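Following up on my earlier message about zinc ion. Here are the inputs again, as you asked, copied directly from the submission form:
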Amino acid sequence: MQATKNAQVLLKKYFGYESFRPHQEEIIDCLMQQKDCLALMPTGGGKSICFQLPALMLPGITLVISPLIALMKDQVGALKTNGIAAEFLNSSIPQNQQDEIFEQMVQQKIKLLYLSPERLLSQIDHFKNHLNPSLIAIDEAHCISQWGHDFRPEYTQLAQIRHIWPNTPVAAFTATADKTTRKDIANQLKLRDPKLVVASFNRPNLSLEVRFGIKKKKKIEEITAFIKKRKAESGIIYCLSRKSTEEMATELKLNGIQAGFYHAGIDSEERSRIQDDFSNDRIKVMCATIAFGMGIDKSNVRFVVHSNMPKNMEGFYQEIGRAGRDGLPSDTVLYFNLGDLVMLKNFNEDSAQKELNNEKLNRMVQYAEASICRRIILLAYFGENMENPCGNCDVCREPRSTFDGSILVQKALSGIMRTEEKIGINLLIDLLRGSHRKELIELKYNQLKTFGAGKDLSFAQWQQYLLQMLNRGLFDIAYDEGYALKVTSFGKEVLLGQKKVDLVHLEEVKPYEPFKKKALPYEIVEDSNNSLFDYLRGVRRQFAEKENVPAYIVLSDATLKELAKQKPISISELIHIDGFGEFKIKKYGNTFVKEIKNWIGSNESPTVKIDTYTQTLHLIKKGYSVQEISEKRTLHETTIYSHLAYLYSKGEIDSLEAYVSNNDINLVKEAVKQTKEKKLLAPLFSYLNEEIPFHVIRLCLAIIQKEEREEN
Ligand code: ADP
Ligand code: ZN
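Thanks, got it. Here's what our run produced:
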């Protein structure tokens, strides 16, 4: 518990975040107890903090092993802008500089070192003799498993670290791993009774849409129109072939869009220059093969379009996951043609794992052809049940009619159970339809009760219904057991009659009608020249250029949005903005506060500024609690507390008695006397043994300041 309290202080101090995202605290706690951990979190879920914070709290150094060399520079850059000693080692750094970094490391001057597995393994003795890391974090851990979608043989050598540093806890992270892969990762890395953390893969801020059977010319027209609607925003267009990335980029440029292309055929120097241009917003739209993106940490990618069908769900999810990491609404569109399918099947013919790859491709097709909420399918694929349709996918916007399919489901699932979950899909359909196929008879499946229970449906109909069931997460396919079907716990509940399931009428699965799009449930970010957000983007850009880092590393879009909404005009207000840690407040605080004041001065009458506070005041006077106001206004509770402090200091509220006790005020007074940095909450919080919450300290400070003013 002490560990997590301390972690919370450091989270604010170094990263400027007020609270943890789901599971972050749990993982940090586990690592601080020296336990191994296997964490599955979606892209953008916030994995980095899970090992960066323990690295700050533990003595000595943390090694971060990642195959994504291109990402290291950005991640280390981001750590440095937050005042954290981090470095990376890879071939892009000259030898003498590498020696220097190694020396600093031995002298314990570095808290986090990023490096690739090859790098570590090629000099393993050197590392072994000079370092004893406190923690080893392994990113993209699915690369170690042949069941994953991105197997890298060099990763399998990583098992050595267990022998070399037997006492160092190992934390494995991945954004994609089905159950088979999960087991394999833990085995291969020799994790010791690891804590398994599976975060929700739901990314509600990403809209989902599939467009089927659209011809090439029309597709390009649609994509162009789509991008033009989002003029100031960044996005990625994934294409199947190198040639098509170039064609797409040319088309877009002809339409006045700042587009570039990227594929593995471009030499590596040029590739990293292109990535840099994208990160720094010099190229707005990147037309790329899937080689692009692994090295992209840009948090404000606003859309991802797949102009062709992806190979599998893991890849697809990772690719769309590159949009909206900052949590703001972002759009994803998948185009798919039968031609794509033929081409992908062809690729698979030559692959070493043909059968597995084809099966994974099938799941992708099933997703694209689905007639129920796409997010339900996506999450079911990653082993998660979502009960209600999402409202932010094309199917939800144009729902199909359904019927209670529980009986149909029970027939199918009991077929699976009665064959001891050893049966595959086609044989199951034969069983349900009572076929006299030789294989069925040999296995004595014709003696089962479910034999022929689904005679009334054709093979093709069963295929479609089973597809819906699979997509609903009622059963799963075990790739490592000859594609045997396994009933999930959700499936068992339906089988026992404890839950009902709706299925879509097959005749309702209509051909796709392009461009029929209802209003989105959220506002589209328009390109307006006079918004404060855009103004602040300009301010951020200047810092980015001066420091030679991407703009989103200076401050994220989410932080700029928050600034534009809250309009803080003093450092004490700025402290409440998510994303401003101590280091960034010192570095950028004054400039942003000044620029916001400037902007308000020239764009708004002074009364507008008071507006957000007045709204809160209004609700307080009506008797609403802070929590209720926070919900009503969709603002953080901490923000409402800061409004209270402001309103109190302006004399709009007479007393804060309802929120703080005299005892708290006295304690904070004493703490203010004893600590030098009066304005910063974190030192006060620490001084007070972390026993008084931030928001209470904040209110006490308002009271103390008012008393001081009155005394003077
Ligand atoms: P992942 O590695 O899982 O894809 P990151 O670690 O890059 O995700 O985090 C994604 C984004 O979320 C980053 O911009 C990061 O700064 C932000 N973030 C992480 N943790 C928090 C938090 N507790 N509060 C607010 N933002 C966070
Ligand atoms: Zn949906």
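One observation from looking it over: The pocket of zinc ion (ligand 2) is lined by residues 373-375, 389-390, 393, 395-396 (CB under 6 Å). Hope that helps, and feel free to reply on this thread.
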